[in-house]
Specification:
Keywords: Kinase, Transferase. By secondary structure, this protein is of the alpha/beta class. The protein contains 9 helices and 14 strands.
């Protein structure tokens, strides 16, 4: 999406000007991985408008492959506004009927999905529309791109899924959100979930309980804000505390964590190193008002394996 945000901490209603940037869960992760030195591509649709052009141009400038991004001539690019407050930053979304919300299961057959090591998706996409929910089911649950016999790819990629629960998007179909997000999480290879969102969704408050609920997902990472992150895999539990950081704004930090962690996966790092790199990339975003990892995060790049 296009993001319109104040240049300082004053509330949106008091601002004479706004700054235009970009944001969105999956594209944030792609930018984070590109900043860490990996090849990353983003598959989506934007409107035939200046916002869509800005998104594609900026992602490309950050090193993300946007060759598979489609332009929808009938539906607009989604937009959201940030509204700083004394306790938290509120976000106001305008993406109902957007180009991305009109994606459907046909996208799962895009040839670009065959030649990749990790496919990362978010529960936010599933919430945009029924057709988007069907798209995620095709990729995460049915694994359609790798079972249709036409790819020629000997092994399927790792499917990574961030629950990313946004209650407002499921407001009129909350029961669907509870069920859909649980089904997608259980079917993924790597799951990222916040302790607080798991409690809100499934009434599971402890990391150990969350990991048990999401079985048979082979790898679950439970994030608990300023406390730390715990991963569960093959009966092993690893906890990495959150390092101290001066928080300017939390928006986008979860996506940055996912990018750092997945970088560790791509470099075949051990679990503690993956969690540590996730914390480092999240901290880089927490210190700014941007949603994505800045170019300065390249200093945290994992050495080539």
């Amino acid at each position: 999406m296009a993001v319109l945000a104040p240049p300082d901490a004053r509330p949106l209603a008091d601002q004479p000007t706004l700054r235009l940037s970009i944001g969105g869960a999956e594209s944030n992760v792609a930018c984070g991985l590109a900043a860490l030195g990996h090849r990353a591509a983003w598959l989506s649709r934007v409107g035939d408008d200046p916002f869509g052009q800005r998104i594609v141009t900026e992602l490309a400038s950050r090193g993300v492959d946007v060759s598979a991004v489609g332009t929808d001539p009938l539906h607009p690019t989604g937009v959201y506004f940030k509204d700083p407050g004394p306790d938290a930053t509120r976000t106001h979304y305008y993406r109902r009927g957007s180009a991305a919300a009109h994606m459907g299961p046909d996208v799962a057959r895009a040839p670009e999905l065959h030649d990749t090591r990790i496919v990362h998706l978010s529960g936010i996409t599933a919430a945009l529309s029924d057709s988007c929910a069907d798209l995620l089911e095709e990729i995460v649950v049915r694994r359609t791109p790798w079972t249709d016999g036409g790819s020629g790819t000997p092994t399927r990629p790792v499917v990574s899924f961030d629950v990313n629960h946004r209650p407002a998007l499921w407001r009129h179909r909350r029961a669907d959100g509870v069920r859909t997000l649980l089904e997608l999480a259980r079917a993924a290879d790597i799951v990222f979930v916040g302790r607080d969102e798991a409690e809100a969704l499934w009434h599971t408050a402890r990391p150990d309980e969350i990991a048990a609920l999401l079985a048979p997902a082979p790898l679950v990472v439970v994030k608990d804000a300023e406390h730390g992150a715990t991963s569960y895999s093959a009966g092993h539990r690893v906890f990495a505390p959150t390092p101290p950081v001066e928080v300017v704004e939390p928006v986008g930090a979860g996506d940055a964590f996912a990018a750092g962690y997945l970088s560790g996966v791509l470099h075949d790092r051990d679990e503690m190193a993956r969690l540590h790199l996730g914390h480092l990339t999240a901290a880089a975003v927490l210190r700014t008002r941007d949603d994505v990892v800045a170019a300065t995060a390249r200093g945290q790049k994992a050495p080539a394996s």
